[in-house]
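Can anyone check this?
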Amino acid sequence: MDSGNQHIVQLLEKFSRGEADPSDTDQLLNLLQQQGEDEKMIAFIEQQLNGYQPDNAEELAYWKEKL
């Protein structure tokens, strides 16, 4: 995994622990847009979303759409 992907993983892990602030979230979304189609990264994100327990269904739907 290259350094860009590693940073994405770090941000996703931070987000999944509830420790991401708005700037982390913006950075994550920007990195994902720059990254393009990376099958390994997409699989990792799907795995993270499957384990993500949001406060409500709208939040989960929001993140699935963004990612």
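Reply from J.R.: I decoded it. The CA atoms of residues 9 and 35 lie 12 Å apart.
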